[in-house]
């Protein structure tokens, strides 16, 4: 089913989950790109949840170890179990709470979506290093290095391929909103912050992500945070 150009897609995803059942542990909204992924996925699919926010700057290790021995955020807590790592959390949400609707409908599309999500999850080290997520900042005149430019070109290529194939079904990578969009949401934020020049198709997709009430709510919270992590500032 096609969605409107922007906004909520919640109506398509009925989970019946009680907010009391689900807790997502995240880091600073301004900086924690991995936290944004499951947070955005839950918000966009309308699944209610509690949030525990930790500072990546202060006593992080000590605090996060209460939730996950992996020592990183995000962590999802459900039915007495901790699920860590953004992709494992996304898979869990799709399977346990969305009856599989977190992924596209056809096997072919699911394989494609899983491929680009895996590529995102394990790739683009130069983009990550040179252009750390910093939602509230807009940096003009930033020039990515050659390797980061290569990462950017590859991501734009992925967005093009997906949007060209699925534009008739809605504004997301696979038409309707899926986990793939949540996994690429921090890239949309980075492209905006670092003012990456984009063609119309890629700019349009970036804007689809940025214009959602979910992203806007994350951004408003990021702007309200006072902590500055020097290591994340370019
Ligand atoms: N592959 C993990 C990466 C998680 C990650 O690196 N999280 C960062 C915050 S964005 C973190 O916890 N950093 C703190 C640390 O490494 O001490 C995922 O997908 O969740």
Report the helical percentage: 40-55%
What would the average pLDDT be, to the nearest integer?
Answer: 94
Kindly name the structural category: alpha+beta
State the CATH architecture of the largest domain: Up-down Bundle
Envelope shape: globular
Number of domains: 2
Strand order of the largest sheet: 2-1-3-4
- Largest sheet report: 4 strands, mixed
Model regions low in confidence, pLDDT < 50 over at least 5 residues: 1-6
User: What is the CATH top level name of the largest domain?
Assistant: Mainly Alpha
Percentage of residues in DSSP E strands: 5-15%
InterPro entries: Glutathione-S-Trfase_C_sf (IPR036282), Glutathione_S-Trfase_N (IPR004045), Thioredoxin-like_sf (IPR036249)
Protein name: GST N-terminal domain-containing protein
In short:
The protein is an alpha+beta fold and 234 residues long. The chain has helices spanning 33-44, 60-64, 86-97, 107-122, 125-130, 146-166, 179-193, 200-210, 213-224; strands at residues 22-26, 50-53, 75-78, 81-84.
Features:
234 residues, alpha+beta, Glutaredoxin, Glutathione S-transferase Yfyf (Class Pi), Chain A, domain 2, 2 domains, four-stranded mixed beta sheet, 9 helices, disordered N terminus, binds glutathione
Q: Any overview of this molecule?
A:
The protein is of the alpha+beta class and 234 residues long. The chain folds into two domains: 10-100, Glutaredoxin; 107-218, Up-down Bundle (Glutathione S-transferase Yfyf (Class Pi), Chain A, domain 2). It has nine helices and four strands. The protein has helices spanning 33-44, 60-64, 86-97, 107-122, 125-130, 146-166, 179-193, 200-210, 213-224, and strands at residues 22-26, 50-53, 75-78, 81-84. It has a four-stranded mixed β-sheet with strand order 2-1-3-4, with helices on one face. α1 (33-44) runs parallel beside α3, α1 (33-44) crosses α7 and α7 crosses α8. The longest helix is centred in the middle third of the chain and has 21 residues, at 146-166. It is globular. It starts with 21 loop residues before the first strand and ends in a 10-residue tail after the last helix. Residues 1-6 have low confidence and may be disordered. Glutathione binds next to α1 and α3.
């Amino acid at each position: 089913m096609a969605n409107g150009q922007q906004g909520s897609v919640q109506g398509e995803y009925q989970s019946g989950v009680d907010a009391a059942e689900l807790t997502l542990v995240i880091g600073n909204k301004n900086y924690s790109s991995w936290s944004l992924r499951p947070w955005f996925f839950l918000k966009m699919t309308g699944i209610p949840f509690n949030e525990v926010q930790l500072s990546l700057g202060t006593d992080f290790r000590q605090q996060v170890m209460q939730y996950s021995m992996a020592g990183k955020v995000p962590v999802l807590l459900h039915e007495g179990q901790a699920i860590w790592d953004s992709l494992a959390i996304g898979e869990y949400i799709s399977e346990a709470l969305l009856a599989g609707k977190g992924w596209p409908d056809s096997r072919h599309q699911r394989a494609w979506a899983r491929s680009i999500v895996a590529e995102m999850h394990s790739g683009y080290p130069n983009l990550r290093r040179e252009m750390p997520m910093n939602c509230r900042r807009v940096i003009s005149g930033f020039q990515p290095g050659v390797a980061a430019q290569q990462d950017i070109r590859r991501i734009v290529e992925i967005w093009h391929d997906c949007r060209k194939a699925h534009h008739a079904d809605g504004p997301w990578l696979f038409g309707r909103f899926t986990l793939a969009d949540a996994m690429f949401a921090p890239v949309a934020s980075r492209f905006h912050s670092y003012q990456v020049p984009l063609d119309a198709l890629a700019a349009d997709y970036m804007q689809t992500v940025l214009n959602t009430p979910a992203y806007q709510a994350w951004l408003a919270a990021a702007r309200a945070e006072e902590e500055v992590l020097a290591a994340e500032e370019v």
